[in-house]
Structure formats: structure tokens, C-alpha cells
Amino acid sequence: MSTYEAISVMIIDNDDLQLELVSAQLENLGVIKIITADGGRSALAKFDASQSKPDLLVCDIQMPDIDGFEFMKAINDRGFKGSLVLMSGQGAHILYSASLVAQLSSMKFLGTIAKPVTKTALEAAIGKLHAPR
């Protein structure tokens, strides 16, 4: 059994190619419970409708309907206590700003990943899932 086989992950990105890429990399790491959402609004609808909440959210920061900052606030307001990884192709400054916001939430913030997301970066971030907060 893979280290990550038991976790459930929701990937949030408005880019279908990124959703496929990150899903494939998670599958390569042994994750079998993957939910994708094409943007923040879709992610909130899927989150609200699901009986069991994901263990990990992998969220893009720049999205047209609800951006990563708004999504973090909305999910935090819902009392989500799981883990979060943020990703962006917008550069280090945006990732740093988002990480500061994420650290103030009730979620366990695992880190940021620059796009294009690599398997190594994803594994490093989700490897912190079981580390103490």
C-alpha cells in the first residue's frame, strides 16, 4: 500500500491541462481518491456537496471566478481543518503572499508550488501531510 493511497485530494484549477497533469502526478505517487474542480466556484459546490471532505486541497491562486485567496477564505469559513497546497504560475511574489494568508487560516498549510507542477515538488509538499503542525 502506498503512503498516500488512503488520502483524498481535491485539485482546484481553471486550466484542464493542469488538472490532468496534477492528477496524473498524484496517481504516480499512489493517490487514488482524486476530485478535480475547474475553478473556485465549482470546488466550493463539490466541497459543500460531499459527505466526506478531502484531506488535501491543491489549489491554484489565479482563477477567474473565485481566486485562490477567496477560495481559502470560503473554505476556512466552512471550518475545513485539512491540508492545503497552493500553486501558481504567477511567480514567487504571488506564492509568498498566498503562503502568508494560508498560514493565518485554520488549515494545515503544506507549502507552495510553482507551475508547471513537478512530481518532485508535489511529493515534497504532500510529504508534510503527517508532520506535526
Walk me through the structure:
By secondary structure, this protein is of the alpha/beta class. The protein has one domain: 3-Layer(aba) Sandwich (Rossmann fold). The protein is 40% helix and 21% strand. It is built from five helices and five strands, in the order βαβαβαβαβα. A five-stranded parallel β-sheet has the order 2-1-3-4-5, sandwiched between helices. β3, α3 and β4 form a beta-alpha-beta unit. The longest helix is centred in the N-terminal third of the chain and has 13 residues.
Summarize the structure.
The chain is an alpha/beta fold. It has helices at residues 16-28, 40-49, 68-77, 92-103, 119-126; strands spanning 8-12, 33-37, 56-60, 83-88, 108-114.
- The total beta strand count reads 5
What about the largest sheet? 5 strands, parallel
Top-tier CATH class: Alpha Beta
Quick one: overall form? globular
The topology string of helices and strands comes to EHEHEHEHEH
First-last Cα distance:
25 Å
CATH architecture: 3-Layer(aba) Sandwich
Helix content: 25-40%
Uncertain segments of ≥5 residues (pLDDT<50)?
Answer: none
User: Rg to the nearest angstrom?
Assistant: 13 Å
What percentage of amino acids are in beta strands?
Answer: 15-25%
Could you tell me the mean pLDDT? 90
The total number of structural domains is 1
The CATH superfamily is known as Response regulator
Which strands sit side by side, in order, in the main sheet? 2-1-3-4-5
- Under CATH, the topology can be stated as Rossmann fold
Based on helices, strands and strand pairing, what is the structural class?
alpha/beta
